[in-house]
Design brief:
single chain, alpha/beta, eight-stranded mixed beta barrel, 46% helix, binds ligand C2E, binds calcium ion, Diguanylate cyclase
Length: 278
């Protein structure tokens, strides 16, 4: 039993070593990803639930490493936060997305572009100045830019968060609350913040197919959001049945694989391309 224990420990440490090395290697690679041109932005359509028209696109960061291939944002974004790289990367995403939105506008397709803001970016006091500088640089109409935040960023230092939102709103951009329903906040709490759009988290949209309670929850979210003057986007719409139900519940916009997968900006309006936005 002792020997087995020792083997287990040896096995465990070598596995841990591997994990540490994996992380170190990924860290090193991530430090150079932006400079090496390995990052790109994909755009996923947000369509009107009533007309089916594409009215916006969410910018989603992509990292393709020359040897490791595509690395999931769920894996490298927390790493970028830890390493203090997210401000620079986030700013690059913002500029790239604004340039893309301007290009679409010039083509006669004025789409809103939604950009994810990380917790660390939201905590840096000069975020509004940076956003303002990019808007000026790209000459994009601020009304075409939506910033996506999550509930957890609004918890804690309420006054500070409120002040930050007011400064951002002062630029003329809109604010969306991402992954709504997964955190601990409530309507009583968020009604104090100047939020334009609620994004119903995909876990509810998924659960709608099997459970009546999820339908009731989504229905309630939409009703209360509307009464507070917010627009509602449902995320992760994959099935026709979900779309129909969400339309029936009065959801404003839909996003998900059913409506279109994230694609490079140049392919966004490509006709007849599989997986491209309509
Ligand atoms: P998120 O902001 O909640 O983005 C939605 C995620 O759901 C995206 O994953 C998208 O590809 C995926 N998705 C869209 N439709 C469907 C669907 O119908 N079914 C399923 N199963 N998934 C769907 P992705 O691109 O892997 O991004 C994961 C997360 O990484 C994002 O979640 C966001 O939190 C973060 N992220 C992505 N880009 C950025 C960025 O530029 N900055 C920051 N700070 N975070 C980002
Ligand atoms: Ca998002
Ligand atoms: Ca989300
Ligand atoms: Ca998420």
């Amino acid at each position: 039993a002792k020997a087995a224990g020792r083997d287990a420990i040896r096995f465990f440490t070598s596995e841990m070593n591997e994990q540490v090395q994996d992380r170190l290697m990924l860290e090193q690679a991530l430090r150079h990803a932006l400079g090496n041109g390995e990052l790109s932005v994909a755009y996923q359509p947000q369509v009107s639930a009533t007309t089916g028209q594409v009215i916006a696109a969410e910018a989603l960061l992509r990292w393709t490493h020359p040897e490791l291939g595509a690395i999931s944002p769920a894996r490298f974004i927390p790493l970028a936060e830890d390493l203090g790289l997210i401000e620079r990367i986030g700013e690059w995403v913002l500029r790239t997305a604004c340039e893309q939105a301007l290009a679409w506008k010039v083509e006669g397709r004025p789409l809103r572009v939604a950009v994810n803001v990380s917790a660390r970016q939201f905590r840096s006091a000069n975020l509004p100045e940076r956003v303002a500088a990019i808007l000026e640089e790209t000459r994009l109409d601020p009304a075409l830019l939506e910033l996506e935040l999550t509930e957890s960023m609004l918890m804690g230092k309420v006054d500070q968060a409120e002040e930050m939102l007011r400064r951002l709103k002062g630029l003329g951009v809109t604010i969306a609350l991402d992954d709504f329903g997964t955190g601990y906040s409530s309507f009583a709490y968020i009604q104090h913040f100047p939020i334009d759009t609620l994004k119903v988290d995909q876990t509810f949209v998924r659960a709608m197919l099997t459970g009546k309670s999820a339908v009731a929850i989504v229905s309630a979210i939409i009703a209360v959001a509307h009464s507070l003057g917010m627009r509602v986007i449902a995320e992760g719409v994959e099935m026709e049945a979900q779309r129909n139900q969400l339309v029936e519940l009065g959801c404003d916009e839909l996003q998900g694989y059913l409506l279109g997968r994230p694609v490079p900006g140049a392919g966004f309006f490509a006709v007849g391309e599989s997986g491209a936005a309509p």
